[in-house]
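User:
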Amino acid sequence: MYPYLWVQQTEHGQLEYGTYGLMLVLAFLACAIVCGMRMKKVGINPDVVVPMLVVAIVSSIIGARLLHFLGSPADRELFFSNPLVLLNVTKGGMAVLGGLIGGSVCGALFIKWRGIDVWKVADIAATVIPIGTGVGRMGCFFAGCCHGRVIEGVQHTSLTGGFFPGGEIVSLDGFPYVAFTYVRGVGMGSVHDIPVYPTQLWEIVIWFSLFGVLSWVWKSHRKFDGQIMAMLMVAYPVLRSFVELFRGDAVRGTGYLGELSTSQVASIPVFVAAIIMVAIQFRKGVKPEAEFVRAETGDVLDYDE
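Assistant: Predicted structure:
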C-alpha cells in the first residue's frame, strides 16, 4: 500500500527507504519498552532486556528464514544446494512462525545462561510478542506482502480514494466487507486491480487482541509460571491456521501433509508443546516475585511497585 517512506535519487542510483523496515524497528522498540516495564514488576533487572533482544532478533531472523526455505517447495531445493542462501536476504522470504520459534528458543537459552527464571520471562515474552508482531504485520500491510486470495463476484468501492500509492482499501457488498487492491509495479503485491482478502489486517487485529487478553491474564489471573506462554502457543496456531485458509500471496502448500501451509504444519508441534508445558508446570504454581538475585554478582535487586 505504501512501500516506501521516500525515495532519494543519488549518483549511484535510486535509494529507497522502506516502510516495512521502519515497522520492524518500531516493533522491536515496542517489545523492549513493554518487556522492560514488566520485568521490573516481577523483580527482574530490566537491564537484561537489551542483550536478550539482540539474541532474540538475530535468532528470529535466522529462524524465519530457515522455516521459509524448509517450507517452500520452490526455495527448498535452492537452500539444500546452497545453505548460505539463508544469509542472502535478497533471496526467498521469511516465515513469521519460524521467527517466533527461533527467537523464543534462543532467548530462553540466553535467560537460562544468565541464571534467570525462564518461565517468568517466558510469560512476559508471551505478552510482548503479540504487540511486536502486530506492529510488524503493519509492515506487511504497507509493503503489500502476505495478502489474501482473490475475492470474486463482489462489487467494490474505494474507501481511500488513491491515498496509498500501492493500492486501495475497498468496501464490498458481502464478506469480508473490507478488502485490499494492489497496483502493479508498486510494492510486493502479486495480485493486482482486484480485491483480495485483508489477511494482514486480520492478523493485526488478532495480535493486538492477544496482547490485551494475555496482558490481562498475566497481571491478574496467572495460576502457574508458563501459563501465558502456553496460552499463546495454543491460541495463535489456531487463529493463524484460520487466516491461512484465506492467504493467497504465494504458493501456500509445503509438500508436507498434503496441502497444509508452512505455518499450519509448524503449528502442530507448537500446539503439542503447549499441552506438555501445561502438564509440567501446572502443579508448580506461581513462584514468589518479590526479588531477583543477579546470578553473576549475588546482589539482590528489589524493585518497588
